[in-house]
Predict the structure.
Amino acid sequence: MDRERTHRQLRLIAETTRIADALGVDLWLRGGWAMDFFLGSPTRDHTDIDWFARKQDAERLARELLRSGWTLLSGPPADQQRDFGKQGEESSFALLDEDGSGHAVVGGGPWAGERWPDGMLDGPLGHIGTTACPVISPAAQIEIKRMTPVWIAGRPRRAKDAEDIRVLEAAVRDGAGPEREPGGDTPR
């Protein structure tokens, strides 16, 4: 594992969380970092940091990230996702909206209004060391990793997603993850 990059990404996650907290903006880690924060330690190298944010918070969050030295990167249309870079790392914020019943849905683009997995935003506060960050629920992480190749035609099933599913299922089955002490890597 590239320890330097892992530590840099952890610092950027902590910074992003502080920015969001100061703005009163909710964020949730998704992807590989969500799994790692659920488990309490890094499991592998990550190419980027993936987040969910509410569509109505996107502009305020973007302004503050830019003020904090992040650079706006090109990527999907702005109503779907916002991508930023800093210190050679990328953070992507997929935008959420809510349907009439308060369920999380895709915030824009061709899939706007499509529902995300039930309970996705009910995940625990994950921890790695002293850094705490909300994560999407493990069940949603598993469903998204399983279904992405189905939802997105031509998207191959990735070996790292299969391994993440295996690790997450074992952690959920064994009761690992959500009851971690803040600032520590051991369960309560």
In short: The longest helix spans residues 3-23. Helices lie at 3-23, 31-39, 58-67, 138-151, 159-173. The radius of gyration is 16 Å. The domain at 3-137 is CATH 3.30.460.40 (Beta Polymerase; domain 2).
